[in-house]
Structures
1.
Amino acid sequence: MITNTELEYKGDQFPSQIVSFEQDVDSIYFHTDNNVILKITILRDSLIRFRYTTKGYFSNDFSYAIDKTQSHGYNQLEVTEESEFYQIKTSKVFCRVQKKDLKISIYDIDGFPILEDELGFHWEECYEHGGNIVKMSKVSKDGESFYGLGDKPTHLNLKGKRVENWATDQYAFHKDQEPLYKVVPFYIGLHHHKAYGIFFDNTFRTFFDFCHERRNVTSYWAEGGEMNYYFFYGPKMSDVVVNYTHLTGKPELPPMWTLGYHQCKWSYYPESKVKEITGKFRELRIPCDAIYLDIDYMEGFRCFTWSKEYFPEPKRMVAELAKDGFKTVVIIDPGIKIDKDYWVYQEALKNDYFCKRADGPFMKGKVWPGECNFPDYTNPEVREWWAGLFKELISEIGVKGVWNDMNEPAVMDVPGKTFPNDVRHDYDGNPCSHRKAHNIYGTQMARATYEGVKRFAYPKRPFIITRSAYSGAQRYTSSWTGDNVASWEHLWIANIQMQRMSMSGMGFTGSDIGGFAEQPSGELYARWIQLGVFHPFCRTHSSGDHGEQEPWSFGEEVIDITRKFVELRYQLLPYLYTMFWQYVNEGVPMLKPLVYFDQDDFHTHYRTDEFIFGNQILVCPILEPNALGRRMYLPKGNWYNFWTNEVIEGKKELWVNTQFDEIPIFIKEGAIIPKYPVQQYVGEKQIEELILDVYYKLGKEKSTVYEDAQDGYDYNKGRFSLRTFNLNGKEKELIIQQHQEGTFETTYTKFKINLKGLPFKVKKVEVDNEKIALDKLHLNGDNSLVIDKDFTELHLIG
């Protein structure tokens, strides 16, 4: 019998006083007399890593989240010792480490406190699992707000919330439900007009408490692993988000067709049904680029097979769909059916690729095929094998994309709906239990899928979509928000989730338009389409259990609204593609909540509905039934009403009238918005002129347009076109200067410039210092002109 109660339960333990410290280039180590070591590493002047161990040594330093291809560097690092603390100073911040208890406080370079430990780092020994529950608590400043954390279905501002990170198959989830499919342990704090970020890189089950339990305390903890977090200093939210995205990685540019409209259902089968659906899109002239096949395309739900009954000739079918502009995307789940006659199962069994329980047998669970085993995607050998399985699907049959579902991992008919904790994983040579590997299982599956699709799609670009993800998954895959519901509440949730995911580094995300579970009304579907076309990933998807959910399922009025807004998305493809280019190259989020756009305006801190699409389009969805208008907030600046061209001064709340076929959309004054003609699918038409909608501003504004071949990798060799437009509006003159980079030659040679809000009648036009006759331009007819695309400077003079 154990009678030593101290041994039975020690409670929370804390670092004691520092007894020594040492510096090794960019890292400083602090040792306490109770065996705690704190390692502080300066990655950038505004990016610092804090890593703690309680055992006197560090385990192998390994992370799936960190992009190892990204470079870091700092300008200044000074370490000094004072009587009560050590101070580490960079050119942006300084950090103090208290000698008596290892507590941290971080200040900006002017000495303003940004983040301070409350209890600071502490831990609780967990004898059941043999490790520590690691904890951190920070002081929450007056008026502090919190953002981020991925796909949480709750208010954009997390103040007063407690959230949990454990990838979970949460069918028909509801508002404020925890946890969901994705794990992004990264948040942004904002107080006194200064922003910072924390990324707690720990794949165990984690929790974040934003002043929920204690009013002025923010805390986060994990059920195992290390206290290992990264601190980002702004002071702008944009600095924090960009640096986090740089740390965890950016995707490669997707093919443009992936930015079109997609149609999906569980499930479209047989082939005749697929052809009926795609034919109806073309008949109704609703643009669509992709059709999805769910699990029923397989033979008995076996991955990498085709149903001989439903799809007897998949190669022919996929080719015929492609001829009509449809790219075929198929589902692949992690559960491999236990079947001695199934070649995928045989290969994995022979090579010992399945996850095992702690005492030896393979992990077995029930999913769609019945009893299954599950590949260990944390083993690089297994990922290589899995990638090779895509050869037939991609290079022979011609499938263009793959979506990974059920990869939380989801298992039916068991408590917790996932693997038991004792399942073992390779974890890239760092063997561990499922407690550690659970949250990254889906990401590693998506990574292996990405590597396979990329290999066999070459020289085209791959397209992957995943349901479950951990920080860094954006390097390999897009995502959707899982099994939502056809309800007005879920329309609100979808709007929040997309903004939050964009701020959390995972921009290429969308929701199931119309809701996956249950059946939307025509009004709800129309309002969802109107929002969904402004999300980076745009797909209607439904369970099929509650009725039809194609755009023509709701009558002529909804057909017309769907066509109108999907056509608008296709017109805005060059704008959307440019958004992606900025995200891929600079880490700039594609959707920007108002607080991101103007953090100094307190009125933006609790706004949830309005967001900036790209840099210059403000979108505010209609989220309630029977609404022909709504109140909304216009941020700083002047904005053009997209539908009326009325200019409205920002930084105020106002009522905006709408119709059923409209939502409030505003264009930033001075913007130059690029547009393509409407196409039924990407590549249907050769673009013969680029439309530029120019919104006059008294003052200056910069706009960019990025273009390339829309697929393939030539853009990496300089074969791209990047145009930067500098607009300068005066009372009687409008000047547009163009700067070009790249060697890509567009198919068009002309710009059609549509002038919006010009306050004067044009009397003279000069292009590159040459006067152009007005009768050649028809300028004062419809206020547009067509000019050569390679101009350097355009002057419109009143």
2.
Amino acid sequence: MEDSPKTDPSKAGKAHEQKAENAPKSGERPDQGKAPAPDHYRTEPQDTHIHAHIPAPDVANAKYEHPVLAQPPEALTGLRLEGREKVAAGVTAVIKSMQFSWTEGGVGRGTKALLGLNQKDGFDCSSCAWPDPDEHRSVAEFCENGAKATASDADDKAAGPEFFAKYSLAELSRMTDRDQNNAGRLTHPMVKRPGDNHYSPITWPDAFDLIAKELNACASPNEAVFYTSGKVPNEPAFLFQLFAREFGTNNLPDCSNMCHESSGSALSPTLGLGKGSVTLNDLHEAEVILIIGQNPGTNHPRMLTALQKAKRNGAKIIAVNPLIEAGLVAFKNPQDFMNPLKALGALMGDGTPLTDVFLQVKVDGDMALLRGIMKHLFEAEDMNPGQVVDKKFIDEFTVGFADFEQNIRNTSWEEIEEISGISRGQLLEAANLIAHKQKIITCWAMGVTQQRQGVQTIQEIVNLQLMKGAIGKPGAGTCPVRGHSNVQGDRTMGIWERMPKTFMDALQKEFNFTPPTKDGFDVVEAIKAMHLGMTRVYFGLGGNLLAAGPDTELIAEAMRKQKLTVFVGTKLNRGHLTTGETSLLLPTFAHVDIDMQKSGHQMTSCENSMGVVSQNKGILVPLAGDQLSEVAIICGTAIATLGDKTRTDWVAMTENYDVIRDHISRVIPGFEDFNTKLRRPGGFYLPNGPRERKFTTPDGKAHFTKTELEKYEVAPDQLILMTVRSHDQFNTTIYEYNDRYRGIHGERRVLFMNPADMASRGLKAKDLIDITSHYKGEERRVEKFVAVPYDIPKGNVCAYFPEANPLVPIGSVAKVSNTPTSKYVVVTVVPTAANNDLRIKEREKMMA
């Protein structure tokens, strides 16, 4: 066993250990290990366990049938419309960050939290997984979104036993999602017993015993579902999957099933690794950057700094998105306000222009768009032989090129233009930027992954990179931009429902038990199984499945059918209120909190979007209460549940997290000497074969893919809906009712519509509407949204999640990945069916 606090307690989380040499350099490409760190995704169409049809829930009338609301309340909060902003960040972002931080945690506590955020000896941002610089880090190494997430975690208000005694579950459910989050940090373990309408206090031993009793009452371990949020660090994630598998099930759905599952499903069979291939410095060095189906200004604001640096180095940027987002147009870097030479220009100027070519694609039209660009590139190659397509790279490193080339050439321009909504001339403009460049990076996010053909679209992205030889060298490669802080790391740690035999064998050898062999449920399968009565216990380690998943009311029905629901979290959310017969609400630490155990101040780790594993060590004293760390909660549950059946030393892992990392170092390739490498400044890079042109596919080659471009017909009155975040939101956490970049203030129940689509339906700005989704003859309806005219392609509409999630059918999923199609929902829109008096009152309120 490597030297660790188990043998030398003085090593536990000590700052002096972080002075090791060889901090990673993201521009270098050394041999990063003998074997790539595992990354596990489906590579073929899903053969779901559950074929039974589940009827659509009565979405519109659910509010009358259940006292605890699963959907956010319909009461409107007062819409004010302004023009769309044309520049992201700037001084407004700084002001908003400070206001929120000081409001939530107080000036002293809030400022201390921000100063430790994303520092090499600090804690990891609990928001997005964008990488930190390997070298110099600013004193303010965070963005507006990260500041809000950290301030929320650092909240000095408590939602303790008195709070839950005051409000029933029904009353809590009638609060907005913002007000639930702002109620304060959870401080004590709480229980809702059968027939109760309040949560009440429970001791930790009793909570563990209650979980153990219900789990051990299962007729099969597969009657339990263990869900994970991407906010969970590596160490508790590893323990969570270990406990589930020692208990006897692979039912380990997680939030990646709903976001980048499509990315991994496309990258694994084509490049051999389901992760991106680039580093942060590659973005700085790129000649062309494509950004497809991503809004960095709201979802990954620190990416804007990298794009700004790339632009200043001469890069061209092509943006592909149905909405013209401020963060794709221009950027004012808040860091410039700290530089006397740049401050005036940053304050008075127009910011750094980012996008050179903006392609306002139709929803679900990205595959056709990519084909159009590649068709132009082949035509350019015909006119300039050997100058556009990298034949040398293709011959040496790839297979399948001929079939791919024929497929692209055979696609008609009429089909490309109709499906994408982009003209041949516009596509030529983008292709001309790419044709004679080799350092090309393509970035994408859920705007691609949540389409019906998300996997196939990403395979076309890979095709584009491969035909240009733009992978495995500085300034080039694939860049799926992940969401939550450790969503990529959780998968690396084994949070997956169908882990390969190599992982299971290593787990068996290390912990001396036989892991289950039957594949488990992903998110969609788990929801179906819960609804069909196939499970009795739901255990959620963080997150908010009710608000993150599709078909909100169907999830609510599924939760109510459980004997026990267990929610581990830091703050209250709507998912904690729609419960099983018995429910536990267990408070845990956030990234910002100091975690003291028997061996001292503990640290955990997270893996960012570019495969860097770095430490997370809290700096704030937790609020007074009875919280436990995620590690302690999992270990306490395991001890109570498994009893004499386990040979794992759960106590040792609770007392010293380096013991967990010792185990990980022997189970997961790429984590050798984990404890030593984690203490290096900035952490360490995991092995990445595609980054070095080592394609770990079965034949050692990168694979071109011949995809099928499908055209879908909709009725004349139907529109295609996509769901998005607002700017004052991260994942399902709502910080405020505003979306200032899009000009929305004081309201979330809005539907962005093309003005022509509004006119054809007799709608005016701020009219109240009902939205109905249509899928295989079934309908789901949400009421009392507000119509907002917006620059969006005709035939497309857009709304925020979680408000619009009840419209997403559980059965509508992406091919192969089984990801819910939140970026392709067929809907109709009509004036609201609510009674006229109420409509008038709401209109008067909005107009006031």
3.
Amino acid sequence: MPRAPYGALALSIVLSLLGAVPAHAAPVDGAKVQWIDRTTVAWPKGLGDTGRPHHLVHDGGRFTLTLRPDRLAKYPGYDVYQVHARESEERTALTGALTAESDDGTTTGVQIAGVLDDLYAGPAAGARLGPVFRDGRPTLSVWAPTARAVALELDGGTVPMRRDAATGVWSATGPRSWTGKSYRYAVTVWVPALRKVVTNHVTDPYSTALTTDSARSVVTDLDDPALAPPGWRTLRKPKAVPLRNARIQELHVRDFSVADRTSRHPGQYLAFTDTSSAGMRHLRQLAASGTSYVHLLPVFDFATVPERRADQATPPCDLGSFPADSDKQQECVGRTAARDGYNWGYDPLHYTVPEGSYATDPEGPRRTREFRQMVQGLAGAGLRTVMDVVCNHTAASGQDDKSVLDRIVPGYYQRLLDDGTVATSTCCANTAPEHAMMGKLVVDSVVTWAKQYKVDGFRFDLMGHHPKANILAVRKALDALTPAKDGVDGKAVILYGEGWNFGEVANDARFVQATQKNMAGTGIATFSDRARDAVRGGGPFDADPRAQGFGSGLYTDPNGAPVNGSPQEQRARLLHDQDLIKVGLTGNLADFRFTDSTGHEVRGADVDYNGSPAGYAAAPGDALAYVDAHDNETLYDALAYKLPRSVTPADRARMQVVAMATAALSRGPALSQAGTDLLRSKSLDRNSYDSGDWFNAIHWDCRDGQGNGFGRGLPPAADNASKWPYARPLLADPSLRAGCGPREAASAAYRDLLRIRTTERAFDRGTVSFPLSGTGETPGVITMRVGDLMVVFNAAPDAQAQGVPALRGTGWALHPVQAAGADGVTKSASYDRGSGTFTVPGRTVAVFRCGG
């Protein structure tokens, strides 16, 4: 027995030499201590005895910590300690095992992102990472400051890489013959979670091309003429539209064409070059009416779809044979969901490479060429391209095969909670763009897409999880791009994102966030949920989906559901919803003044939205209006839940247009989900990210027999089962399946409104007012004046007269676009000069022009 301790010690020393648990190591409890710069450690209060000596223990010894009297506002629950060590010793210590220990036996791991930024980020800020070509010779560079060694695995061989001590960047330069070769990095690094040194074989975070299924990076020069389709260098884009006037179609590449029988490239980038397809014909119609941008859901390389079509599974059932309210469709789709060709793509793997499953061949750089052809195709249709970027999380972290960043610099790129675990508030492994090199990756990636792919705008997923400073850095970098130097005008590139405030960063807990209130005045827009909820009714997470709003019959066409309350409660809520919509129509301006439904003079910021100010924008370009997007039920499906069953298909189409108009005619930018003008349904699916083509595909041509997507079975159980009791009778009702007449009527009426919004300068420059606001306002009707235009939104089922006494004796007439438009009901809208009264049919939006 006396020999056992000696044997354990000997084993520990051997394992230490082999890169496993170091000889000094004791059991480690998470990573609760934060080394925030080269001289400072934040130590949680109550962790160990403050009166006992504290140390940072590393492979070569220990650094003494001494308690400082100051406090750090950013770390309110921590004591501050001084680190006593030479910088060279700190750099060495960061490449191996590191723990924080006190003499009372307390031991915990150490978070090192702060000190890495302090030591390396400044010099590394200007580093050009990934493949960089000079005179045809490539240099490959990767930032890996904690690595003990990095080797380049290139085309079956291994090339050593040189480390720059100041930047922590490893690089290797090769001959022209490296071009087109596949490669990975072999990164030898200490992994705290495993408590040993490992060699990770990892693709390049700055990859510009990949082999199939992202197995390896490919040495690719994006300036290579072979990657440019004919006409790429001289491509002329449609004229840039300022963000405040942008009208955007949100579109998923696969949804767009996979069910389009007229497309020669279903589900692919090249579908946007099929000029005679039904989908492209419809996009050209929208562009001619004023749509200016197509917003593509993620088209960077993502993790969950097999990229070869031959490897993609298909549901093993005749899905069309089941009843409209059956649970069999979703069950069958679910069997292959993890292996099919469908995903929204919010699971990033490589940020700066096009997704391979949308290319005709995912191997190598063809995806680059075809992505560019897609951009050309959209430009030829009169549309500029916006790209959805998802830099707030990665598909995986740690040692997972789908983890790239965390296997190169463990514990740096992902945001860690106070106990050292990876934050997952965004759904997945959160990134930390507040760390300098993650922030740099965001900026560098966006700039590459703008320069090399001529992307005209970027939508940031969960932008509130980014620091405001990071998004402003993106803006600054784009603004520096010029046509003469870079081939693009970076100042014309638009930026917007989801400014939601939640999770571990909420309320600026870790940094000033890129949230709705914080981005006001920056020229970078955030999605506004205020008018969205007021129009649709309720909220996206309601247990009972029948809660009504302005655009779904609240009070004026009650559905009888108890969730809506008494008639008096409905009336009061409807009038408040109308106040929210008015604020939205102004561009969500905080300082806009009007009389609210209670008769009080208020500003937009005084109107309540679930405890927050409805108005938060400083200018019309700060808030983006929408009533549906890829998240939550489509507008048609929301109305199916909320409108009374007795409402006819034709009137459902009219309510769809009324709802869409509240965004389309707003003063700020507006977004619509592709197909919404055609009454697109996902069979009531509220989260179709992995629901396959069956529930997601857009059916552009109503004559192809596929309907609008409604009644394709109960939506997938994982996110919808609790709604099945409400959904089943609706899906079984054939009267709710929109036919050609309502679909075509809705689209034509919507396009008329788009044409008015994008051709009338009053919406951009005119003064906005609501002349009938106040206690006497008609429930279900909003009357808005914008310069020399009067817009009446009548969501009520019956015709409504809106008398404006101040206009008596003045001449107004229905706008020429609507007077000559496709909707005969709208044409019956009238104005009486003697009384100054506008009369508008039920479920109609009519625009009148002064002097007509």
